[in-house]
Every structure is written in C-alpha cells, then in structure tokens.
Design brief:
This protein has helices spanning about 10-25, 25-40, 60-65, 115-120, 140-150, 160-170, 180-195, 215-225, 230-240, 245-270, 275-295, 300-310, 315-320, 330-340, 350-355, 365, 370-395; strands at about 45-50, 90, 100, 125-130, 155-160, 205. It is an alpha/beta fold. It has a six-stranded mixed sheet, with helices on both faces. Helix 2 (about 25-40) packs parallel to helix 11 (about 275-295). The two termini are about 45 Å apart.
C-alpha cells in the first residue's frame, strides 16, 4: 500500500490503494486497516544525542525532556560522577519512535572529537544537545566543530540555571534581578564560545528541574525550525506539556491532521461493505480523541504522574475539565460534538470529497460526512486543549 508523501499529504493514489484494500476485507479487518493508516504517521524516528562533561546534568536532562523525574520508572541513572559508559537510548514513555540518547561524558584528557563521534555512532542522531553546567570549554568546541563538519545540528545548553539563580539570590538579597542575572550568564557563555572559535553562538539556559522556565520555548523553536517537516511533528508531540506555548503548537499540529482523518472517513463511505462507514467513523473519531488526551497529558497515566508532582488528586484535576468526553468516549458522548447530522458543503475545493460521500440520513444510521467528522474533531480538540490549559494553570498555580 502506498503511504503519505512527506507524512503530511494523502494523494489520490494513496486513497485508491486504501479503498481497494478495505473493499475486499471483512468489517473488523477494514477497521483495523484504517487504524493502521492513521498510526503510520507516528512511526517516524527521532534520535536526540545528549552529551557534555561528567556532572553537567546530561542524564537529568534526558529524563526531563521525556517528562520524567530522576527516580521514576525508566529514568536515566543520575549521580555526581559519570554514570554513562556507552551510548544508551531512553525511549519516550508515549512515543517509542522517539529516543533520547544519554552519551558518555566528554572532557577527558586527550579528548578527540572525531574518535568520540565514531564511538557513539554519530550517524544515528538527528541532532545533538551539548550541555555545560558552567562555562563551555575546548572539549565542547572541538565536538561542536566536528559535528558541524559532518553535517549535523547541535545546540548549546547551559544547565542547572536554577542553582545559579538561587546562588545569586543569596549573595545579592537586596539587589537581585533575575533578568539581569540570566542575561549575564548567557552573555558570559556566548562570549566564552566566541573567544574559542564559535561564530555567532546561541546558548539556551535550562533547568531540568524547572524545565518550563527559562529558555525551553526558545530551544524548542530553534529545533523545530531546523528539523525536516515530518520530524518536526514528532518533536512537538513528544515535548512535555509544561508551557502553554508548547500546548498551543501541539494543538496546531493536531488541527493540521484533521483534514487527513476526515478524508479517510469520506473514502470509507464509498466502499460497499454493510456497516463499514459507521463502524470506521466511530473508530477513527474515538482513536483521534484518545490521541488528543494522550498528547495533552490528560489520559489517566499522565494525570497520575502530574498528581504525584503537584500534590493534587486526579479528581481535583478532572473536576476542572469542561469537555463532555472526560467521562469516556462512546456514541452517546460523541453525538453532541456532531451537532446537526446534515451539513451544507459549500466549499468548491471539496468537490472531489463530496463526490465520494453518499447522502446521509443521520449520523448514527448512515455514517458521517467529511465535514461532520471534521466538525466533531475540531470541537473535541478545542475542548480538550482548553482542559489542558486549565490543568496546566492548576498544576503550576500561576497564570499561563
């Protein structure tokens, strides 16, 4: 079966292949085929290499980037001495196609960047995070230059910013200015990099224990801008839900996928298999809404982890949510999203889609049109994104 070009567009050839496949299948198999089509877009691999000197906070960053604490299940081992002897991949808890690699420490005597990159199998990574907990030194520069020479991206991260801020607060109780302190740290790092050979360096200030503060959004924007489009989507969905900026971008990624999902629904309506359209429409919408809950961290396992960190209960968070879907996804909870069962399709650009869809008597009896599925998913996404905003506000107890 042909698949989506660039992971973003379903061509007419793709549609015909899918239609031909499901037209010869029984109902359960056809439903599973459509589910597999939707899941293919989540199989794009993303490999992130995290490196730096021993004790710089590499392993803690690996955990925080995946939304985990240092003592949670599947977290990278952390400690005051080097704990990583060879490259180790840590899978994202929700997206097994996303791997964050904890790489051995750099900065040993006689460090050679080319030999190090060969040791860690340089080719496997999409980009590198180079971490320093103080000033960047020659070993960081040697590594960065070799990475650039070999055609890959890297990002300088100054870690443990929370510790630097706390120290400055204690030493300057009367005159402490957080913005000025952050600007000074950033300028010091960037000046140091310039002095040892990096042109126009950019340094991101990060605290793995307060990941939503400081420069996480700037780092995410830089990585997003420089990744290929299909990998950009994977990165955005995998980021932890700790800032409203990240959640807004996740919503946009999910919105862009609605047309693709609705087109699949329209396709199914043309296949003469009794009951197929209704069954597939329900399966498609249900699966996408489950995805929304998971992406925004509103599924039960994610909420439980949030409760452990915030001190609140699952019931407290759920009591704040407005979406009718919070009680479960079933035909009764989905029908209010659809509104009127018959919708007027006025857009000229949808003529091909309209030609695929028979007249429908009702949502339940006849299956859902392209526009009905689109409407349902847009409403569900808006509701769930708003719930995510409310939960984020409650979890940090501050305005977002």
């Amino acid at each position: 079966m042909a698949m989506f070009d660039d992971y973003d567009i379903i061509t007419l050839e793709d549609l015909e292949d899918i239609k031909e496949s499901i037209s010869t299948q029984d109902l359960p198999t056809a439903v599973n085929t459509i589910k597999e089509v939707l899941e293919k877009q989540d199989l794009v691999e993303l490999n992130i290499g995290v490196t730096g000197e021993s004790g710089s906070g590499k392993s803690t960053f690996v955990n925080a980037f995946r939304g985990l604490g240092d003592e949670e299940e599947d977290s990278a081992i952390t400690g005051p001495v080097e704990t990583t002897k060879e490259p180790k991949a840590y899978f994202h808890p929700k997206y097994k196609n996303v791997k964050v690699w904890d790489l051995p420490g750099i900065g040993t005597r006689n460090f050679k960047a080319d030999e190090y990159l060969k040791l860690v199998e340089f080719e496997r990574y999409d980009f590198f995070i180079i971490i320093a907990s103080d000033r960047f030194r020659e070993c960081h520069i040697l590594l960065a230059k070799e990475i650039k020479r070999m055609g890959k991206r890297f990002y300088f991260v100054r870690s443990k910013i929370d510790q630097s801020i706390d120290a400055e607060k204690k030493s300057k109780k009367k005159s402490f200015d957080q913005k000025k302190t952050l600007d000074t740290i950033r300028e010091d790092c960037e000046t140091g990099l310039k002095n040892i050979g990096i042109q126009d360096p950019v340094v991101f200030l990060i605290s793995s224990f307060e990941l939503g503060n400081y420069d996480l959004n700037l780092l995410q924007e830089k990585m997003e801008h420089e990744l290929p489009q299909h990998k950009r989507r994977v990165l955005l969905l995998a980021l932890p839900n700790i800032t409203q900026e990240i959640n807004d971008k996740k919503k946009k990624v999910l919105e862009e996928n609605i047309g693709k999902v609705a087109l699949l629904s329209a396709l199914v309506a043309t296949v003469p298999v009794p009951g197929l359209s209704v069954a597939v429409d329900f399966a498609i919408v249900k699966k996408e809404i489950e995805r929304y809950h998971s992406v925004f961290g509103l599924d039960d396992p994610s909420l439980q982890m949030l409760c452990e960190r915030s001190g609140k209960t699952t019931d407290e968070f759920k009591s704040l949510m407005k979406s009718p879907l919070i009680g479960g996804i079933n035909p009764a909870s989905l029908l209010p999203l659809a509104g009127a069962a018959s919708l007027v399709l006025a857009e000229n650009g949808l003529e091909y889609v309209v030609s695929l869809i028979p007249l429908l008597g009702s949502v339940v009896a006849g299956g859902m049109s392209y526009m009905t599925v689109s409407k349902m998913l847009k409403r569900a996404l808006n509701d769930i994104a708003e719930d995510a905003r409310i939960v984020l506000m409650a979890s940090v107890q501050t305005e977002v």
